[in-house]
Design a protein that fits this description.
Largest sheet: 5 strands, parallel
Oligomer: single chain
Shape: globular
Radius of gyration: 19 Å
Number of strands: 9
Strand order of the largest sheet: 7-6-5-8-9
Strand content: 5-15%
Structural class: alpha/beta
Length: about 290
Protein backbone atom coordinates (compact mmCIF):
# COMPACT_ATOMS: atom_id res chain seq x y z
CA UNK A 1 0.00 0.00 0.00
CA UNK A 2 3.04 2.30 0.30
CA UNK A 3 2.57 5.61 -1.53
CA UNK A 4 5.10 6.58 -4.20
CA UNK A 5 4.93 10.08 -2.72
CA UNK A 6 6.39 9.28 0.71
CA UNK A 7 9.38 11.29 1.94
CA UNK A 8 11.08 8.98 4.43
CA UNK A 9 14.73 9.19 3.37
CA UNK A 10 16.36 11.37 0.73
CA UNK A 11 18.15 8.36 -0.69
CA UNK A 12 14.77 6.82 -1.57
CA UNK A 13 13.90 9.74 -3.83
CA UNK A 14 14.85 10.56 -7.37
CA UNK A 15 17.49 13.28 -7.58
CA UNK A 16 15.43 15.16 -10.16
CA UNK A 17 12.50 15.24 -7.75
CA UNK A 18 14.64 16.74 -5.01
CA UNK A 19 16.08 19.34 -7.39
CA UNK A 20 12.51 20.24 -8.37
CA UNK A 21 11.68 20.85 -4.72
CA UNK A 22 14.77 23.03 -4.28
CA UNK A 23 13.86 25.09 -7.34
CA UNK A 24 10.28 25.47 -6.17
CA UNK A 25 11.48 26.53 -2.71
CA UNK A 26 13.06 29.62 -4.30
CA UNK A 27 9.73 30.59 -5.82
CA UNK A 28 7.86 29.96 -2.58
CA UNK A 29 10.39 32.07 -0.67
CA UNK A 30 9.53 35.00 -2.93
CA UNK A 31 5.81 34.33 -2.46
CA UNK A 32 6.30 34.27 1.31
CA UNK A 33 8.07 37.63 1.31
CA UNK A 34 5.30 39.11 -0.82
CA UNK A 35 2.60 37.54 1.43
CA UNK A 36 1.10 36.00 -1.68
CA UNK A 37 1.28 32.25 -1.04
CA UNK A 38 -0.27 30.01 -3.71
CA UNK A 39 -3.24 28.00 -2.46
CA UNK A 40 -1.94 24.73 -3.88
CA UNK A 41 -2.88 22.78 -0.73
CA UNK A 42 -6.49 23.96 -0.66
CA UNK A 43 -8.75 21.17 0.52
CA UNK A 44 -5.86 18.98 1.71
CA UNK A 45 -6.09 17.52 5.22
CA UNK A 46 -2.75 16.84 6.91
CA UNK A 47 -2.11 15.02 10.19
CA UNK A 48 0.89 16.31 12.18
CA UNK A 49 2.17 13.64 14.57
CA UNK A 50 4.90 14.66 17.01
CA UNK A 51 5.95 12.10 19.59
CA UNK A 52 9.53 13.16 20.40
CA UNK A 53 9.53 16.92 20.97
CA UNK A 54 11.13 19.57 18.77
CA UNK A 55 9.41 22.61 17.32
CA UNK A 56 11.08 24.17 14.25
CA UNK A 57 10.17 21.90 11.38
CA UNK A 58 6.82 20.81 12.82
CA UNK A 59 5.80 24.44 13.36
CA UNK A 60 6.92 25.19 9.81
CA UNK A 61 4.81 22.29 8.48
CA UNK A 62 1.76 23.60 10.31
CA UNK A 63 2.29 27.21 9.27
CA UNK A 64 3.20 26.29 5.70
CA UNK A 65 0.22 24.01 5.13
CA UNK A 66 -2.20 26.60 6.50
CA UNK A 67 -0.62 29.43 4.49
CA UNK A 68 -1.23 27.43 1.29
CA UNK A 69 -4.84 26.63 2.06
CA UNK A 70 -4.44 23.23 3.74
CA UNK A 71 -5.88 22.03 7.02
CA UNK A 72 -3.23 20.78 9.46
CA UNK A 73 -4.32 18.95 12.64
CA UNK A 74 -2.06 17.85 15.49
CA UNK A 75 -2.79 14.18 16.22
CA UNK A 76 -1.57 13.05 19.68
CA UNK A 77 -0.33 9.67 18.47
CA UNK A 78 2.72 7.67 19.52
CA UNK A 79 4.09 5.06 17.16
CA UNK A 80 5.25 1.78 18.65
CA UNK A 81 2.90 2.21 21.60
CA UNK A 82 -0.39 0.38 22.21
CA UNK A 83 -1.82 0.52 18.67
CA UNK A 84 -0.35 -1.45 15.79
CA UNK A 85 0.96 0.47 12.77
CA UNK A 86 -1.61 -1.13 10.47
CA UNK A 87 -4.44 0.03 12.73
CA UNK A 88 -3.11 3.58 13.08
CA UNK A 89 -2.63 3.79 9.32
CA UNK A 90 -6.22 2.72 8.65
CA UNK A 91 -7.67 5.22 11.11
CA UNK A 92 -5.53 8.07 9.75
CA UNK A 93 -6.53 7.18 6.20
CA UNK A 94 -10.17 7.69 7.18
CA UNK A 95 -9.59 11.40 7.74
CA UNK A 96 -6.28 12.59 6.27
CA UNK A 97 -4.66 13.00 2.87
CA UNK A 98 -1.10 12.92 4.25
CA UNK A 99 0.70 12.26 7.53
CA UNK A 100 3.72 14.26 8.69
CA UNK A 101 5.41 12.43 11.55
CA UNK A 102 8.32 13.17 13.89
CA UNK A 103 9.18 10.00 15.79
CA UNK A 104 12.31 8.34 17.18
CA UNK A 105 12.57 5.25 14.98
CA UNK A 106 12.73 5.35 11.18
CA UNK A 107 11.65 1.71 11.13
CA UNK A 108 8.26 2.72 12.55
CA UNK A 109 7.77 5.31 9.80
CA UNK A 110 8.43 2.67 7.17
CA UNK A 111 5.89 0.43 8.90
CA UNK A 112 3.30 3.22 8.94
CA UNK A 113 4.04 3.97 5.29
CA UNK A 114 3.63 0.31 4.36
CA UNK A 115 0.08 0.21 5.71
CA UNK A 116 -1.08 3.74 4.90
CA UNK A 117 -2.63 4.79 1.63
CA UNK A 118 -1.84 8.45 2.41
CA UNK A 119 1.73 9.67 1.84
CA UNK A 120 3.94 9.75 4.94
CA UNK A 121 6.53 12.51 5.47
CA UNK A 122 9.45 12.10 7.86
CA UNK A 123 9.73 15.17 10.10
CA UNK A 124 12.71 13.66 11.99
CA UNK A 125 13.93 10.37 13.40
CA UNK A 126 17.06 9.41 15.33
CA UNK A 127 18.48 7.97 12.12
CA UNK A 128 17.82 10.81 9.68
CA UNK A 129 16.33 14.28 9.27
CA UNK A 130 15.50 14.74 5.57
CA UNK A 131 13.56 18.00 5.93
CA UNK A 132 16.42 19.71 7.78
CA UNK A 133 18.78 18.81 4.96
CA UNK A 134 16.25 19.87 2.30
CA UNK A 135 16.00 23.26 4.00
CA UNK A 136 19.77 23.73 4.06
CA UNK A 137 20.04 22.64 0.43
CA UNK A 138 17.34 25.14 -0.56
CA UNK A 139 19.29 27.88 1.18
CA UNK A 140 22.51 26.83 -0.54
CA UNK A 141 20.69 26.92 -3.89
CA UNK A 142 19.55 30.44 -3.00
CA UNK A 143 23.12 31.46 -2.15
CA UNK A 144 24.91 29.86 -5.09
CA UNK A 145 22.28 29.44 -7.80
CA UNK A 146 22.88 25.68 -7.84
CA UNK A 147 24.32 22.96 -5.63
CA UNK A 148 26.39 21.04 -8.18
CA UNK A 149 29.88 20.25 -6.92
CA UNK A 150 29.47 21.66 -3.41
CA UNK A 151 31.71 20.10 -0.77
CA UNK A 152 29.81 19.66 2.49
CA UNK A 153 31.96 19.03 5.57
CA UNK A 154 29.89 17.58 8.41
CA UNK A 155 31.76 18.01 11.69
CA UNK A 156 29.49 15.73 13.67
CA UNK A 157 29.05 12.18 14.91
CA UNK A 158 27.09 9.50 13.07
CA UNK A 159 23.53 10.59 13.88
CA UNK A 160 20.45 11.92 12.12
CA UNK A 161 21.94 15.10 10.64
CA UNK A 162 24.86 13.28 9.07
CA UNK A 163 22.48 10.48 8.08
CA UNK A 164 20.46 12.71 5.78
CA UNK A 165 23.54 14.34 4.25
CA UNK A 166 24.80 10.86 3.40
CA UNK A 167 21.40 10.12 1.83
CA UNK A 168 21.57 13.36 -0.16
CA UNK A 169 24.99 12.43 -1.51
CA UNK A 170 23.53 9.19 -2.89
CA UNK A 171 21.26 11.04 -5.32
CA UNK A 172 22.58 14.60 -5.70
CA UNK A 173 25.77 16.02 -7.29
CA UNK A 174 27.43 17.00 -4.00
CA UNK A 175 30.39 15.69 -2.01
CA UNK A 176 29.93 14.96 1.70
CA UNK A 177 32.80 14.29 4.09
CA UNK A 178 32.40 13.55 7.79
CA UNK A 179 35.28 15.15 9.73
CA UNK A 180 35.36 13.66 13.21
CA UNK A 181 37.25 11.24 15.47
CA UNK A 182 37.17 7.71 14.07
CA UNK A 183 35.16 6.18 16.92
CA UNK A 184 32.11 8.20 15.76
CA UNK A 185 32.50 7.65 12.02
CA UNK A 186 29.52 6.54 9.97
CA UNK A 187 29.93 3.19 8.23
CA UNK A 188 29.74 2.60 4.50
CA UNK A 189 31.69 5.09 2.41
CA UNK A 190 30.43 5.64 -1.16
CA UNK A 191 31.54 7.57 -4.27
CA UNK A 192 30.26 10.90 -2.88
CA UNK A 193 30.61 10.24 0.85
CA UNK A 194 33.75 9.59 2.86
CA UNK A 195 35.09 9.97 6.38
CA UNK A 196 38.17 11.75 7.70
CA UNK A 197 39.76 12.86 10.95
CA UNK A 198 41.89 15.65 9.49
CA UNK A 199 40.51 19.17 9.98
CA UNK A 200 42.46 20.12 6.87
CA UNK A 201 39.40 18.85 4.99
CA UNK A 202 37.70 22.11 5.98
CA UNK A 203 40.12 24.22 3.94
CA UNK A 204 38.31 23.73 0.63
CA UNK A 205 34.82 23.05 2.01
CA UNK A 206 31.96 25.16 0.69
CA UNK A 207 29.76 24.38 3.68
CA UNK A 208 30.36 23.29 7.28
CA UNK A 209 27.54 21.54 9.14
CA UNK A 210 27.69 20.71 12.85
CA UNK A 211 25.56 18.66 15.23
CA UNK A 212 25.56 18.21 18.98
CA UNK A 213 28.43 16.31 20.58
CA UNK A 214 27.59 12.70 21.42
CA UNK A 215 26.42 12.08 24.96
CA UNK A 216 29.32 9.74 25.63
CA UNK A 217 31.75 12.44 24.59
CA UNK A 218 35.35 12.60 25.69
CA UNK A 219 36.20 16.30 25.87
CA UNK A 220 39.82 15.48 25.14
CA UNK A 221 38.80 13.88 21.83
CA UNK A 222 36.25 16.47 20.75
CA UNK A 223 37.61 19.85 21.82
CA UNK A 224 39.87 20.00 18.77
CA UNK A 225 36.75 19.67 16.58
CA UNK A 226 34.96 22.67 18.06
CA UNK A 227 34.20 25.29 15.40
CA UNK A 228 35.54 28.65 16.55
CA UNK A 229 35.76 32.10 15.01
CA UNK A 230 39.55 31.69 14.77
CA UNK A 231 39.13 28.47 12.79
CA UNK A 232 36.55 30.09 10.46
CA UNK A 233 38.90 33.05 9.89
CA UNK A 234 41.37 30.67 8.28
CA UNK A 235 38.90 29.16 5.81
CA UNK A 236 37.58 30.35 2.45
CA UNK A 237 35.84 33.74 2.60
CA UNK A 238 32.64 32.52 0.92
CA UNK A 239 32.15 29.61 3.34
CA UNK A 240 28.66 28.89 4.68
CA UNK A 241 28.74 27.76 8.31
CA UNK A 242 25.40 26.13 9.19
CA UNK A 243 25.42 24.72 12.74
CA UNK A 244 22.36 22.55 13.27
CA UNK A 245 20.00 23.77 16.01
CA UNK A 246 19.82 23.32 18.87
CA UNK A 247 23.32 24.79 19.05
CA UNK A 248 25.38 24.03 22.16
CA UNK A 249 27.73 26.98 22.62
CA UNK A 250 30.95 25.95 24.32
CA UNK A 251 30.72 22.45 22.88
CA UNK A 252 30.45 21.82 19.11
CA UNK A 253 30.60 25.58 18.47
CA UNK A 254 32.08 28.50 20.35
CA UNK A 255 30.04 31.59 21.13
CA UNK A 256 32.14 33.75 18.82
CA UNK A 257 31.64 31.33 15.91
CA UNK A 258 27.92 32.06 16.06
CA UNK A 259 28.73 35.74 15.45
CA UNK A 260 31.15 35.09 12.60
CA UNK A 261 30.33 36.44 9.12
CA UNK A 262 30.30 32.87 7.78
CA UNK A 263 27.52 31.80 10.15
CA UNK A 264 24.29 31.93 8.19
CA UNK A 265 22.21 29.51 10.21
CA UNK A 266 19.30 31.89 10.79
CA UNK A 267 18.99 32.65 7.08
CA UNK A 268 19.29 28.95 6.26
CA UNK A 269 16.57 27.92 8.68
CA UNK A 270 14.20 30.41 7.03
CA UNK A 271 14.38 28.09 4.02
CA UNK A 272 13.20 25.15 6.11
CA UNK A 273 9.67 26.54 5.70
CA UNK A 274 10.03 27.05 1.96
CA UNK A 275 11.58 23.63 1.31
CA UNK A 276 8.92 21.86 3.36
CA UNK A 277 6.19 23.76 1.53
CA UNK A 278 7.70 22.57 -1.75
CA UNK A 279 7.89 19.04 -0.35
CA UNK A 280 4.19 19.13 0.52
CA UNK A 281 3.38 20.25 -3.01
CA UNK A 282 5.46 17.33 -4.33
CA UNK A 283 3.67 14.90 -2.00
CA UNK A 284 0.34 15.94 -3.49
CA UNK A 285 1.58 15.92 -7.08
CA UNK A 286 1.52 19.70 -7.48
CA UNK A 287 5.16 19.75 -8.66
Amino acid sequence: MTSDRDILALGDLDGAGILGMLTRAQELAACWQAREMPQTLAGRRIALVVDDGGWRNTTAFDLGARSMGGLCVHAPIRLNATEAAEDLAAYLDNWFDAVVCRTPELEMLYALSHWAQAPVVNARTRQNHPCETLGDLAFLWHRHGAIDGLKIAVVAPAANILGSWIEAAQVLPIEVVQVYPARWHAPGESPRFRVATDLGELQDADVIITDCWPRDDDAGDLQDYQITAALLDGLRPDLDFLPCPPVTRGMEVSGDAMLHRACRVVQAKAFLLHAQNAALEWVFGAL
